[in-house]
Amino acid sequence: MKKINWPIWPKYSLSDQKSVQKVVSSNRLFAGKKVLNFENKFRNFTKSKYAIGVGNATQGLHLALAALNIGKGDEIITTPFSFISSASCILMQNAVPIFVDCATDTLSPNIDAIEDKITKRTKAIILVYPFGYAIRADRIKNLSKKYNLYFVEDASHAHGMFYKKKHAGTFGDIGVLSLHQRKSLSVGDGGMILTNNKLIAQKLRKLRSFGHEELSYNYRMTEFAGALGLNRIKNLNKENKIRQKNAKILDENLKEHPFIRLIRPISFSISVYHKYLLRLNTKLIKCSLKQFSEQVQKKGIPLKIINENRNWDLLHRHSIFNPKVNPARGLPWLDKEYKGFMRKIKSYKKIKLPVIENLIDNELLELPIDPPVNTKLVNKAIKVINETINKNCY
After folding, report:
1. Is 52 left (phi over 0), alpha (psi -120 to 50) or beta?
2. Mean pLDDT per 10-residue segment, the chain (394 residues)
3. What is the residue range of 69's domain?
4. FRET partner for 292 with CA separation of 20 to 30 A, picked from 80, 139, 298, 391?
5. Looking at the 3D structure of the chain, how many domains does it have?
6. CATH no. for residue 116?
7. CA 373 to CA 248: how far, in whole Å?
8. pTM of the prediction?
């Protein structure tokens, strides 16, 4: 078979180019009317009361914790299965991340596992919508209320994703979405913070720019990002429908496959498939997950292991939580005043999270299905996956 030419996402259009050119012509490149209009458009799209544009989602998550007065000695429960920002933002506030194992259906920590880790030091829960699949955010919201905790949603992959008719990022106290180059709503780099709390929104806006009486930051969105966001959000629903159509074809063809288990959207959710995920039963084949991925990729199908890019390895194994030399800023879990769970463990790599570790190391694969990926290409991918399995089965 001839090597397949899989399309690259995103594709910027002529109208995208014109929107950027207008910004240059305006001579106003930092946050101005385009950003304000994009914030209003995004607020309406998500049905959130407030939307605040920032330079990227990492900045958004940091501002979220700063606005909630998270600080030294606080413990923040979060997932190990995410990009580094979901936990590095905790270190930025000198707080202590507490990682919790994930469930196989949502790839997110379940309620019982979270509740088991809540202590008098716990201040907030940060959870992620992994690759645009839903989590049971209403249950997390109820749990956070029960223990008087903040709930922050990292919805970086979840543009247009709804659970029980509410948009991702609108269940908790604060939601953050990424607008990075690879995201479904791409402005090159940018982020959007959502909240329904007026006081939190006011504080977020103050902390976003230098000059506030508290320590504040230069975290503003550019006019370029605002202009691109305004233009590209018009097509988001249409593009998500293409992703959903592609996912449905994959589901229908792979749902009864003896070597594959699917990650299905949970009930009452509309997923948006930042990537399509599947689980390969490597116990039934004579190659590793990485080897299988490499064989498929040689034929032009970008079916990858999750941690092919080491930035996406499980966070409790990441070097910033297991430094060879302690940084000058110190490590909050080794601070002499901290007496919590991680003080006893000392090194995050000693934590055992067997469910998500097994999934990442031995089972989970991702496939981009963004437009212009179409039915023909999806069917070619299915054919290559089946051929590669047949080649490697015992």
Report:
1. beta
2. 90 95 90 94 98 98 98 97 97 98 96 96 98 97 98 98 98 98 96 98 95 89 97 98 98 95 96 97 93 97 88 90 93 95 91 96 97 97 96 83
3. 28-234
4. 80
5. 1
6. 3.40.640.10
7. 13
8. 0.96
